[in-house]
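Hello support,

Our group uses your service weekly, and this is the first time we've seen a run hang past the timeout. The protein is Transmembrane 9 superfamily member. I'm not sure whether the cause is the sequence or the server load. Input pasted verbatim:
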Amino acid sequence: MRQPLMLLCAAALAALLAAPPSAALFIHEFDKGDEVLVKVSELTSIKTQIPYSYYSLPFCRPDNLVDKAPTLWQFLHGDRQQMSPYLFEMGVPKKCQIVCKLLVGEKEAKELIEKIEDQYRVNMALDNLPLTIPIRRMVTNGFFYQHGYYIGVIGQYAGEERKRYFIHNHLSFLVKFERAHQSAASRVVAFETKPFSVKHQFEAQWNGVNTRLSTCGANANRFVLTSECPQEIKVGEEIIFTYDVNFEESEIKWASRWDAYLSTTDDQERWFAIVSSLATLIAFSIAMAMTMLRSLHRDIFRHNQLETQSEAQMETGWKLVHGDVFRPPSNPGLLCACAGTGVQLLGTLLIAVALSALGFFSPLNSAGMRNAILLTWILMGLLAGYTSARLYKMFKNGSEWKNVTMATAILFPALAFVIFSVSNTLLQNENSSSTVPSTTMCALILLWSGVAPPLVFVGGYLGSRRPAIEPPVEISKTPRKIPKQPWCTRPAFTIPVGGIFPFAAVFIEFFFGLVFVWFHQFYRGFGFLLITLLLLVVCCAEISIALCYYQLRSGDYRWWWRSFLNPGCSSAVYLFLYAVFFFFTKMAIAKPVPAVLYLGYMLLVSCAFFLLAGTLGFFSCFFFMRFIYSRRAFG
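Update from on-call engineer: The timeout came from a worker crash unrelated to the input. Re-ran successfully.
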């Protein structure tokens, strides 16, 4: 009974996580006169970071409002694509089309003013291309593209001190298209707009969308707005929403229509950061090889040349602690759980970043990429449970592997759930569109508990059935007394120093990640991210091995936890401190709720980085210790 239920839950979760095939992955061709529907998504602001539904404000609604079924990530993130009242006919220009007329009440005026104060933008999409505003660069040639348009602007009349709020109630759309080679159909390659605030006037009686507006006219077949008076938001004021659309044939190819959206960053800066990190890593590797490796090779050679036991007992340094170096650490269960979770994170990142760098995911299907990351994380639970159980069996051969596996299954997800629950409660108080209802939250928890922990337990069971990992040297019965340590090998020095190189390896790419995430931009350059991840692996391995080696030379054999904390602890702290610095210097957040959201999610990212870097250092030292104390090298 339990196995079919588990399979059913797994199938349900896979169906929920798997992103439906995006229409952006297929070429849509439109004949002249075909209807092209504009979709609207959430209102976003870099000042508050709290998304709201488009129809939470008094905007025009279509007759039949139907929501597109969201994927899991879109549902949790509050990204709801909905139908809009803007309906185009391909290749047919429209001039000053009336959408609707709305009366602004006290509540509506307050909501619009608040959103304009917080610099909220309206996000739309046409044929899965986001709406943008091209803005000419001041220094270099070309344009950069602002995503969405601001709901309104704040202004003042001459001689007045009171601020006035004007709404963008007229949109001038431009649809660029490419002609298909083998047919007369068209393909959308760009979707742009220019927003205006116009206090419309109409002639005679109001006749709905057929009303003739005196503020719109035509001059030599060119549409013009004849009103110079903007539409101010006032209680009791009527606002007429209008739009016009033009179509323009473009030389942009459909396959490269996203290039303009992704050209918002300078790749030279990222290449410079990669080269700088690589040069630093090479210099550190050379210094490490010239000091530690030469010393290690000399010590192993001298030890193997000793002829008597008395001569061996006169040896000093790391060779003296060979009987204690594989002694189990304190609290081995927690160490195994952290290492298993770190392996799960590392596997998920490597698979996701590698597939993205190879082009399996693109901005056309970003939600699918995020859903795939969630699914990969759950499947990697098998490897996490196997790793933690196998390590714990090396320390203590017993049935307690079940407790360690349970800790591996819930350690990081529990932290993520607590932060997500607090954020969801705050968003619920703000009436945000990204709020997850409590019933849905309970359903997701039950669904997760029926799939993820069982996979971790399957991995733990497989790991517990494997033979225990035997140390290469015999462990002495009596622990050796640890001599007084010099200042350079104490945790107060090694832990802060050990995090410098891992943080330096990811610093620049972390900055770009913050910009892309919190400023609502598209991420590009997964190749840079893959190179950065590989540099992180090498940095964590080298710094952890070097610090642990000099710790052993001073007679301190307690390297298990130190190998995890040296590269992981302080680097995560540095990462979080930089996120705080970015918050105060780059972000425009001034309200407490978005500040708590930002710091909470950055704390979660820092904890994940701690587990990732610590696991890399731990396993690097583990294999290094087994090598230098192996019978071939040491005996």
